[in-house]
Design a protein that fits this description.
single chain; alpha+beta; seven-stranded mixed sheet; six-stranded mixed sheet; 31 strands; 27% strand
Length: 569
């Protein structure tokens, strides 16, 4: 790349606006075309498929499901690229961060995945060789990009299916048996189950003979897993579709939270409208009857969250499924709308960034953490932290945070105190065959509460802190809240959390098609509080109303947290 041609090409590659641009306007496509036109660039066609880690030469950079269908595209190899030029490439990728899934594996590599998940852009930069690799690829199946993509043009990592010659009925029965056996072996709360797991297995296996579709079979497994009553023990859905509307349950009624489709807007649907009924049945009754049995949950509040908050209520399972919806505005005027699965384009939905930070009136910082999952989590927090240090108080909002990596949660907490931090205790079942042969009962492995050191290489934040919680605060986000409460650093403000955490064992029920997650770890709060199956109770309880959520400038929980920051009570 002589004469700084690449650098000049990248300067104009920026994103403007908030909606997802069409492919022809995509800054990543523009970057790809400019790189390809640069003298010295080598373009190679690539084809990848499958999910066998061994065949893929060390695994995958990106892989969805079983990697079925061919992921095809073009890899560009650019030579004589300076670090500054590579940094410009990184900036183009990061410009997508607030509207698409962007993962920076390290400073010299990154991925953007377009939703729906059919397109991937990836780059890697080798500073020693001064080479930059850029991949644009797509699939009509499930994306897969092997780790060796910078050198491999063709990878077929298809898993051999040893059950291919067996009839569907036998395979379905095997999936039910695997779910029964793996839960029996790994489920940490099996002693809490009040039903006869063996009887449920027999009944479910019999029903598997009469299912009419693979999706119906998967939902049969979902109901079986849900019977265990644990939010971390579930079967992954495979064929459900969600309408481009999200909802929220407030005061026992369902309201439109976000409209994610121009088509829905044209139909007259607006944020704040009540969703009165679905297919002639009250929306709440419909949700509990149709979606409720598929929800794995250990608390009523998490069940409500999974059904009514977000996209759970308007799931459809057939290609032409029809939902007859009735909405009502604030004046009670009713709007009937018929929605056919897939008929509305989701063109107004922007992915939620991991962090949202702003300074509120009075010098109070507001930090929303959407999840603890992102690989870039710590680097992104480090970028925000200097601004937090300048505030007079801090509100951390983990409402709707479904969890992720508890290490990332701990990383934030270690900035908030100069004292040692007491961690949670946990246990997990063990099984030693020799003990069983001697008739000795199985004993749990137990890890006692310990101490975690604060960070020593930066200043500690000493201002008052409050944490916002709700029924969507779950998993690693609950771990965060449990440790924060034990630190006595400030109150939890809002409503009880979802009541489930713990590491899951991922189990393949039917190779390449159906997976389950089985909770294997029982966590207890640092002070000994049992919150799995109950939820963490906020020290300041606040319930939202229609007015506080849709009409007031500040929702009720945030307003109460700001009052605490200002007054200390």
């Amino acid at each position: 790349m002589k004469n700084k041609l690449l650098l000049a090409a990248l300067i104009g590659c920026t994103l403007v606006g908030t909606s997802l641009p069409a492919a022809s306007q995509n800054s990543l496509d523009a970057l790809y075309e400019k790189l390809r036109a640069t003298p010295g660039t080598v373009a190679d066609s690539v084809r990848y498929t499958g999910s066998d880690f061994g065949k893929a030469g060390g695994g995958f950079k990106w892989q969805r499901g079983a990697g079925r269908g061919w992921t095809t595209g073009c890899r560009l190899t650019c030579t004589d690229v300076t670090p500054d030029e590579a940094e410009n490439v990184r900036k183009v990728f990061m410009a997508w961060k607030d509207r698409q899934f962007v993962n920076t594996h390290k400073n010299d590599a990154g991925t953007v995945v377009e939703e729906p998940v059919t397109t991937v852009y990836h780059y890697e930069y080798n500073p020693e060789e001064r080479k930059l690799y850029f991949l644009r690829a797509a699939t009509e199946g499930e994306l897969c990009v092997p780790r060796i993509w910078t050198t491999a043009n063709y990878v077929d990592a298809t898993l051999r299916d040893p059950l291919a010659r067996f009839a569907e009925r036998e395979r379905y029965r095997l999936g039910v048996a695997r779910l029964w056996a793996e839960a029996k072996r790994n489920f940490v709360f099996m002693d809490r189950v009040r039903l006869d797991w063996d009887s449920l297995y027999v009944a479910t296996a019999a029903r598997a003979d009469s299912v009419r579709s693979f999706g119906e079979y998967t939902r049969l497994l979902q109901r079986m897993a849900a019977a265990l009553g644990d939010g971390h023990t579930y079967v992954f859905p495979v064929d459900c579709r969600t309408a481009p509307l999200s909802t929220v349950l407030i005061g026992g009624r369902v309201y439109v939270e976000r409209v994610e489709s121009t088509d829905a807007e044209r139909a007259g649907i607006c944020r704040g409208m009540e969703l009165v009924s679905i297919n002639g049945e009250a929306a709440t009754a419909y949700g509990r009857r149709v979606q409720g049995p598929l929800v794995s949950s250990s608390t009523p509040q998490w069940t409500e969250h999974e059904i009514f908050d977000g996209h759970g209520l308007l799931k459809t399972y057939g290609e032409k499924d029809t939902l007859r919806l009735v909405f009502a505005d604030s004046k009670g005027c009713r709007l009937p709308v018929t929605y056919v699965a897939g008929s509305w384009q989701r063109d107004k939905r922007a992915p939620t960034p991991t962090f949202e930070y702003k300074e509120l009136r009075g010098g109070v910082g507001y930090l929303r953490i959407a999840n603890f999952m992102a690989q870039n989590f710590r680097d992104d927090f480090d970028q925000i932290y200097p601004r937090i240090l300048e505030t007079k108080g801090l509100v951390i909002d983990v409402r709707g945070n479904g969890g992720g990596n508890s290490g990332n949660a701990d990383y934030v907490l270690r900035h908030l105190t100069a004292d040692s931090i007491r961690t949670a205790s946990w246990s997990s079942p063990t099984y030693i065959p020799a003990f069983a042969s001697w008739g000795r009962p199985a004993a749990d492995y137990r890890s006692p509460s310990g101490l975690m050191a604060p960070l020593a290489d930066r200043p500690i934040y000493t201002g008052p802190v409050a944490v916002l919680t709700d029924r969507g605060t779950f998993s690693a986000a609950e771990d965060f809240c449990a440790v924060f409460a034990g630190m006595k650093r400030g109150p939890l403000v809002g409503s009880p959390t979802g009541g489930s955490t713990g590491n899951g064992v991922r189990v393949e029920l039917l190779r390449g098609y159906v997976w389950a997650n089985i909770c294997s770890k029982h966590d207890v709060a640092p002070d000994g509080t049992e919150f799995v199956g109950r939820g963490l109770q906020p020290s300041i309880r606040v319930d939202e109303t229609y007015a506080s959520w849709f009409e007031d400038k500040t929702d009720a929980a945030l307003a109460r947290a700001l009052r605490y920051i200002k007054t200390g009570k």
